[in-house]
Amino acid sequence: MYVAQPIEWTDRGVVVLDQRRLPAEEVHYTYTGYREVAAAIREMVIRGAPAIGVAAAMGAALGVLHSSAKTVEALRSEVAEICEVLAKTRPTAVDLFWALERMKRRFSELTSQTSDLAKIRQGMVAEAQQIHLEKKATDEAIGRFGAEFMPREGQVMTQCNAGALATAGIGSALGVIRVAIEQGRKLHVLVPETRPYLQGARLTAWELHKAGIPLTLITDNMVGHFLKTGKVGAIVTGADRIAANGDTANKIGTYQIAVLAKENNVPFYIAAPISTLDLSIPDGERIPIEERSVAEVTHLQGVRIAPDVHAAHPAFDVTAARYIAAIFTERGVARAPFSESLRALAASSQSVATTS
Ligand code: MRU
């Protein structure tokens, strides 16, 4: 099955697929500076929580690799600046901060072992590559746990794009669907277009179509109708940040899908890596919600579709844990009470094997 490659570390630099131009064209850029990577995250060249984490790690590695620092101390202050620039790109997806913390931790380990700058640079590049490799293995494990919960046949629904484009692996929510299909389940995916940025119409439809997975594209205001009449067996979405009690931030529109799912007795699942957990916040109230440009609401592909009026664009919403039937992670499945099950999974040391 086709798997998109949104980001890759190469000898020439970090090669990123421009997701803004999909599905019309597949354009790649090669970045050699961390500020370029930061701009790419901010401007949604690359997006999706885990993929943003991989990009931030690679951006930090690029920054260290091309730094002109001559001493460990000079490099240390540059690393702090590099990570700050990358951290300021998007506020909601916690994977970004998780990846930067990990890169900072690795820098501290390396500098406690050696003062050879070449070795430190090499070690930072290796860490970013390792994070990417782990994402792939993580997605596959999430897929295996989640596939068990998919129906043997029939329709499932997702939201936004939680596929390979969003994770740099096989996808979290779409990874679950992919593994279920590989196991022989006969699934058909209902894909809400996901206004205003159209990640469903542009990216999920593109990914599923290229992988040969049957789908039907619907507009966001058809969700209720299909949940009531469409014999949907399950809904699975990704997540940008999961609070300690299981409240989950995901792409705007996810909350209303979850509420409609409950009303229509359709199980609503989240698929996300442990790196998306933020156990430092007790509930969803504390999750910062990114406000994006209203031009993404008033315009479609640069064409104005509304008069010049006030508009709003919260890019994410929070679904309360009570609407979530289970959360699939690479370490297992969390169920209510999530404050216990998520903490137990986060503490479990089981790690996933990585393959190149
Ligand atoms: O604004 P985006 O496109 O970065 O938002 C992405 C989402 O909301 C995804 O559903 C989420 O990151 C999960 S991706 C595995």
Concise description?
The protein is α/β, with parallel strands linked by helices and 356 residues long.
Structure characterization notes:
This protein is α/β, with parallel strands linked by helices and 356 residues long. 42% of the residues lie in helices and 18% in strands. It contains twelve helices and 16 strands. The strands form four sheets. A seven-stranded mixed beta sheet has the order 6-5-4-7-10-15-16, sandwiched between helices. A four-stranded mixed beta sheet has the order 11-8-9-14, covered by helices on one side. Strands 1-2-3 form a three-stranded antiparallel beta sheet, covered by helices on one side. Helix 8 links the parallel strand 5 and strand 6. The radius of gyration is 20 Å and the shape is globular. The site of 5-S-methyl-1-O-phosphono-5-thio-D-ribulose has 18 residues, from helix 2, helix 6 and strand 9.
β-strand number: 16
Strand order of the largest sheet: 6-5-4-7-10-15-16
Give the overall shape. globular
Distance between the termini: 17 Å
Give the ligands present: 5-S-methyl-1-O-phosphono-5-thio-D-ribulose
The residue-averaged pLDDT reads 96
What structural category do the secondary elements indicate?
alpha/beta
Keywords:
single chain; alpha/beta; binds 5-S-methyl-1-O-phosphono-5-thio-D-ribulose; disordered C terminus; 42% helix; 356 residues; 4-stranded mixed sheet; globular; 18% strand
Helix/strand layout:
Blueprint: E1 7-10, E2 13-17, E3 28-31, H1 34-42, H2 49-65, H3 72-87, H4 95-113, H5 117-147, E4 153-157, H6 164-167, H7 173-182, E5 186-192, H8 199-211, E6 215-218, H9 223-229, E7 232-237, E8 241-243, E9 248-251, H10 254-263, E10 268-271, E11 277-278, H11 295-298, E12 299-300, E13 303-304, E14 316-319, E15 326-329, E16 332-334, H12 338-347
Parallel strand pairs: 4-5, 4-7, 5-6, 7-10, 8-11, 10-15
Antiparallel strand pairs: 1-2, 2-3, 8-9, 9-14, 12-13, 15-16
The protein binds 5-S-methyl-1-O-phosphono-5-thio-D-ribulose.
